[in-house]
């Protein structure tokens, strides 16, 4: 499991055009590796390296235009393979990862929805539940419990 810093993810998205147009280095990689949703909305993403697939859990799906998601996800789909290959310890692992783009899905059914302002809390809870192998059924994420979840997280973090 990995958490990306907000500034890193924003930089990654902003640098994507440079990444697309940059020349590979002597290993065929070396592109600028530069992700955030307009400083307004948090989502949780799960990257399955073996399946080469990304799942986006969005607690407020109405906060973005559905047609925009291909563009939002393109930097992840294209650059995660390069990041893995560049960081691989051996040539054998590099070949195993490959540079083919990942796929993604953004399920809209069965994802608990949050009130405006609670998307960050829900994103962290999605990640926590996924890491623990616990389902995050909408009935367990009642909107009325968001303040309690936020308070519990603050205590845990503090």
TrEMBL record:
Q: Name one Pfam family in it.
A: Peptidase_C48
Which species?
A: Brassica napus
Annotated InterPro entries: Papain-like_cys_pep_sf, Peptidase_C48_C
Q: Which residues form the signal peptide?
A: none
Which biological process annotations from GO are given for this protein?
A: proteolysis
Domain of life per record: Eukaryota
Q: Where is the Ubiquitin-like protease family profile domain?
A: 1-130
Q: Which UniProt keywords apply?
A: Hydrolase, Protease, Thiol protease
The entry lists its GO molecular-function terms as:
cysteine-type peptidase activity
User: What does the sequence similarity comment in the record state about its family?
Assistant: Belongs to the peptidase C48 family.
Q: What is this protein called?
A: (rape) hypothetical protein
């Amino acid at each position: 499991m990995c958490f990306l810093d907000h500034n890193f993810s924003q930089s990654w998205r902003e640098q994507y055009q440079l990444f697309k147009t940059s020349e590979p280095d002597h290993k065929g990689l070396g592109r600028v590796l530069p992700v955030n949703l307009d400083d307004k909305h948090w989502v949780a993403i799960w990257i399955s390296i073996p399946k080469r697939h990304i799942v986006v859990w969005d607690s407020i799906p109405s906060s973005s235009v559905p047609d925009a998601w291909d563009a939002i996800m393109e930097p992840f789909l294209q650059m995660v393979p390069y990041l893995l290959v560049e960081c691989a310890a051996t040539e054998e692992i590099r070949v195993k990862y490959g540079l083919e783009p990942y796929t993604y899905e953004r399920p809209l059914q069965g994802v608990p929805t949050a009130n405006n302002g609670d998307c960050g809390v829900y994103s962290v809870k999605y990640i926590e539940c996924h890491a623990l192998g616990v389902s995050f059924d909408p009935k367990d994420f009642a909107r009325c419990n968001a303040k309690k979840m936020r308070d519990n997280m603050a205590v845990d973090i503090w």
